[in-house]
Amino acid sequence: MPKGSPALTEARREEIINACEKLYQTMSFKEITIKEIGNATSFTRTSIYNYFQTKEEIFLALLKREYELWIASLKRSMEQVETMTKDEFASMLAHSLENRAQLLKIMSMNHYDMETGSRPEHLKEFKVAYGESIRTVMACLHQYFPDMDVAQKQNFIYTFFPFMFGIYPYTYVTEKQRTAMEEAGINYVFMSIYEITFNCVRKLLGE
To answer: How far apart are CA 111 and CA 102, in angstroms?
Structure first.
């Protein structure tokens, strides 16, 4: 454990995560290194190893933070709006992910690498946040659709969460990918994060 107060430790962890987040806006997961992250912080590269041993652990911490921000937005919606129709709920959930494109990007591209490259204690911290996201969506279903039975709610969860992994690669297509699909005769129809999520949620809720 690094020396210093808990507040200093947390501040330095956040600075490392913020540096990684900033680099990820212009660089790919493969391009980013501990050295690059260290250069973007106010302390030495070797000091990073007091907090994270691999870049995968840093990305996992960033993903954990993204999940926590998403959870907070869902809980605010539950507090502010007591009841919702199916269309309103689908719209709320779609907007919540529309505002978390980074969450979708990280989870779709680097999830396996991050988990395998992280120590158990870091993985556990992440799984706590992931589990809370599932419980929060389930709480939304309990609040807004009390007539749904347990099997229906579980089916929603088991379908929606795997679906989230595919949202980013489907909605963010490069020109190279678009050209390849055209040459392969694939009729790609662009959909935004909001549109694809709304349609999925609405279908899962049924008529």
So the answer is: 13
What pLDDT was estimated at residue 2?
56
| Cα first-last separation, the chain | 54
**Residue stretches of the chain with pLDDT short of 70:** 1-4
Q: What CATH number was assigned to the domain covering residues 1-51?
A: 1.10.10
What sign does the CA torsion over 56, 62, 66, 67 have? positive
Ranges in the chain annotated CATH 1.10.10: 1-51
pLDDT value at position 71? Answer: 98
Specify the domain boundaries for CATH 1.10.357.10 within the chain: 56-205
* Cβ contacts of 82 within 8 Å, gap of 6 or more: 143
The three-point CA angle 108-111-115 to 5° equals 175
pTM, entire model: 0.92
How many of the other CB atoms lie within 10 Å of CB of 198? 22
CATH topology of domain 56-205: Tetracycline Repressor; domain 2 (1.10.357)
Q: Using CB atoms within 10 A of its CB, is residue 148 exposed (0-12), middle (13-18) or buried (19+)?
A: middle
Under a CB-based contact definition with an 8 Å cutoff, are residues 43 and 104 in contact?
Answer: no
